[in-house]
Batch of 4 targets.
Target 1
Amino acid sequence: MPNDAPRPVDGLVTPRFAAPASFMRLPIRESAEGIDIAILGIPFDGAVTNRPGTRHGPRALRDASTLMRRVHPVSLVEPYKLCRVADLGDAETNPVDVMKTLELVEARVAAIRTAGAWVLGAGGDHLMSLPLLRGLKRAAPATPPLGLVHFDAHSDTADTYFGGSRFTHGTPFRRAVEEGILDPRRIVQIGIRGTLYETDDMEWAMAAGIRILRIEECEELGPEGVIAEARRVIGAGPAYLTFDIDSLDPAFAPGTGTPEVGGLTPREAMRLLRGLRGLDFLGADLVEVSPPFDPTGNTAMVGATMMFEMLCLLAAARAGRR
């Protein structure tokens, strides 16, 4: 990287509790020009069906991410040496209008991608994965349907909620498959568990070819088996990575809208993410952090840690494409 590449504020010079908060202590930029990876906040919770508060997620994640250092402890990847990374602020949203927010976020992501940067989103509820994916497709319409590695307690492939609402945090990946953005045969969902309203969403997902790794199968396969299966499903093609914080057990991440007991531990999730290195990720997001339900701030800290893991994956993928 050239000498003028963005760098995090040095924690050995300025303490991590000092200076204005930004994602990973990176400079905040208005433009994605000259940037390889843009970290974008998406403050929205207008599509949740249970507990709100994810509109406050990006701000809490920024603050918690000041604890991140520069170098990955295992791979020794330093993403800021592989790529030019910056905090691109927050996407504009309309807190009382879901459809307008989808338009606003899609346009912002498309502009960032057109400028040459990949996006790591920080949400926001899980519906925000849909405009992120739409924005990538809008900027590069010739890109084939993407694969998806999806960490979650829920499949998020429901059709409608509340008598016909098609756009909620429980429907984004059904919509993305229907719109040809995702290839269902290259989707793997990890950590799925919890009770269901009905069986339609799971039946639709399995009929479409989505590989669902329920938490029981994750336990049976073990981390290496889950990693191998995820890599098999995704293959060598381009893919997207999404991490819902409720994939983790609420003992570790209680600050989320729809907690489900019996989930992954942070250590398990970190091991699984590290095993995905080498996949051709073109973008990613971390969603569903709801700070009001965790006054300790631990959920945001766990979320920021997962974001750093994801940033290392994106940086390695982008550098590999060079």
Target 2
Amino acid sequence: MKKRKVWKIWMIVILIFVGGYLGLSAQTSETPDKLEVKGQQSESHQYDTIHSPPPQNSDMNSNETEIKKTEPLDGEGITVIGDSVIMGVEPYLKEKLPKITVDGKVGRQMSHAMEVVNELEKQGKLGDYIIIELGTNGTFKQDHLRNLLTSLSDAEKVLVVTTRVPKGWQDTVNSTIKEVVSEFSNEKVVDWYAASEGKGDYFYKDGVHLKPDGSRYYASLLIEGLQ
């Protein structure tokens, strides 16, 4: 009986020892692989976090440029000087450019423009973008326009608009505008005469002043010229 008990005890001890050894071996064989995978994942995550390339300045600049291009004009810094034609167009300009300054007067001539520019400058209303719409009421000397544009040489852009008026001076006015403006680098002609060709329904009976659709079209040409 004693021998059997001793034998049973030894069998239990051996089984416990063998079971513990096998468990330890299995745990040891799995741990390095798991640790290696975890280590790789951790290292990979750190690399992605630390070594990801920073945003490129060119992309940022491109986005900023795109924003600027799509940003709408509000009219601030834009001044229009003209006669009765621009007075009719003014409400349609201000629909799109609410902060624009429009100085129009019935019967105004190109020879009056310098006085208007000086007065607007004193009042702080002369912008960096200037539109001149004059010539409806008569011809003018080249030097009148040349001196005016010379005085505006510091402006970012100056637009000079041709006229459509059923009078003998129409062609002379338009050719003078094109010839003088070509002498300057920051000036541009907006050719209203060409743009309004064949659009008689835009005008009232006098062939000069514009109906609402004509005024809206005129305003769109000026805004396009500014851009």
Target 3
Amino acid sequence: MRDLLRRYWTTITRPSAYFSLGFLTLGGFIAGVVFWGAFNTAMELTNTEAFCTGCHEMRDNTYAELKTTIHYSNRSGFHAKCSDCHVPHEWTYKIARKMQASKEVWAKVFGDINTRDKFQAKRLELAEHEWARFKANNSLECRNCHSFEYMDFTRQSPRAQEAHQRFLEPGAKTCIDCHKGIAHQLPDMTQAEVDAQKKQQAKKP
């Protein structure tokens, strides 16, 4: 048995001594394709609605709220999944977001928000993290589906027309500045408003 293991180890550590370069190249290519396919399949699996709502923390809180909004059901039949808004579509940004999501796994394991009361207590903190992320990437996930370039302002309400036209200039504002409660209930903003006022007062000379 020991000799067999030694032979396997020698073959693994010095494959060129036993196999041709062509065979190793082909084998490496096939292994790479299989690995990439499996990795990408697993990645896309974590983007499905079934995966996102697999734990009751999401299913009974944010997902339940989403089901009452126009992003879930509407006249055109478009249905926005969790990943459409919370996972970037471009590969590099997607990988970075998935790495950040490891904190969510940690929270699940240790029961940080495993009850409605705990979720409500952390709602403002969780929302502010997402708002900051949207602000930093200029509401990238919103703009994957909604584009100023194709908006028909004549079919919008006067208030929406005025706001969208005013903020068309780059750097003026981004979607999340005005649409924070578009898919989920807003948290209690009292403390956030108090903190904002304190910051404003601190900036005054």
Target 4
Amino acid sequence: GVPLVFRGVPVDPKDPANKPLLNPQSLQAFNFLVELGDSVELNPEIFKEFGVTKVPMLIIRKHQQKSPGSSDSCGNQDADAAQNAALVLGDVTLGYMLDTLTDRQDEIGKEAQRLRQKLGERP
């Protein structure tokens, strides 16, 4: 239930064609993950929105209801996106990342608990 989000596909400097980022040949690099049943997204905007420069990182956002006059989801960034989310950085298991958030007494903590239960006993 947690998608793997990638900023994009690296360009191979040795490839004379220097194919654009989102082409069928580049996207084939993710086929093995999809075949394993993983949800894969290419979304460079998430990296910008949260200032992600190191990975792996787990991000759990608070669900926000739009109020009249609020910005839409068509590219307008929320200035305090990081305040409405929890970010856990580290080369550790998903279970460990979720465990670091399950004690929170808010929506993020509840979502971390739900995902941790779904993950089960796996680390």
